[in-house]
Design brief:
The complex is a heterodimer. By secondary structure, chain A is an alpha/beta fold. Chain A contains nine helices and nine strands. Classes of the chains: A alpha/beta, B mainly alpha. Bound molecules: guanosine-5'-triphosphate and magnesium ion (MG). Chain B: Keywords: Endoplasmic reticulum, Membrane, Transmembrane, Transmembrane helix.
Amino acid sequence: MAATGVDSEITKSDKYSILLPTYNERENLPIIIWLIIKYLDGSGIDFEVIIIDDGSPDGTIEVAKQLQNLYGSNKIVLRPREKKLGLGTAYIHGIKHATGNFIIIMDADLSHHPKFIPEFIEVQKENDYDIVTGTRYMNGGGVYGWDFKRKLISRGANFLTQMLLRPGVSDLTGSFRLYKKDVLLKLVESCVSKGYVFQMEMIIRARQLNFSIGEVPITFVDRVYGESKLGGTEIIQFAKALLYLFATT
Amino acid sequence: MILIHKISNLNNIVLHRIMTKLLEWVSAASAFFAIWYSLIGGYVKHPMIENNMDVILISPIFFLILFGVYAVTVVLYRVFTFNNCEAAFLELQKQIKEANTELTAKGLKW
Ligand SMILES: Nc1nc2c(ncn2[C@@H]2O[C@H](COP(=O)(O)OP(=O)(O)OP(=O)(O)O)[C@@H](O)[C@H]2O)c(=O)[nH]1
Ligand SMILES: [Mg+2]
């Protein structure tokens, strides 16, 4: 999409650090890296991929090393940790080692397609946004592989969130986003929640701190390899976070 | 309580907004019920009010039901119009195959 437009507007000093937290993504990691390289290499976009693997029992790190050998250690950076310490701290760990002035956060399970990254970058540049977030709920966005129940939970939760928090952003729980690095650091500092509701709090805090937010419609294809989980605990976590933000922000 | 503890932790952030969303809802609800109560309590006198007293009495429940119907309609509409990205899925499947072929050729084992 409008690759030439992106090319001409890229300032030489801009660099994008893509954070890829992985836990048991042996099957997905080579594909996601291949896709990132496919869409970004040769586009004039300066980038690095930082893989934060939490000692995955399936040996994700071993595949990551092969990929590093293949694509070079300036493009593929490995920052593993000993054991599973959670997503929130994985991001913090990644940011610490990031050399870019922009950070892109995405899942490694192929539900976030790298083809949207150039669009994120383009939208960011248009209005000098502090954050650009992917949205499944806007025109052009969507999901694949969700049954009625999952769609109902997703739409219901989104309706409730929009009503109670009026965030001005259509997708709060999605985690495919681009941030200015200093903005992300500030947000991470001001967030208290753990787990996946962290994403929701980040965007609410961003509004509170008056950061500007752009949106890009994304298609979300449910993970192909590996188990997908959306259970009672996730819903309870979500409800708690929603009420907490409702009462405090 | 835990909540209060967390609020004080976040004081610097919370101060950015004078009213929390909860307070906004509480004040809107208070305003509504103040008006409602002044009508049913006979503090405002008008024949229109006295003639429609039963409607006024049940109006909070009426609005609640109305809102419930609205919410259910909107959510269901959005569920049924949720874009199914068949094309995105097929494209990804194709790209997975391409990636597998190319990476295997380059000697990657996984
Ligand atoms: N480093 C690290 N990565 C993690 C951890 N938990 C999850 N991840 C990775 O974070 C990304 C998102 O996790 P998912 O398990 O896909 O979570 P989700 O998308 O909310 O749920 P699914 O429906 O299962 O896809 C994936 O790339 C995971 O491999 C963790 O504890 N540490
Ligand atoms: Mg996922």
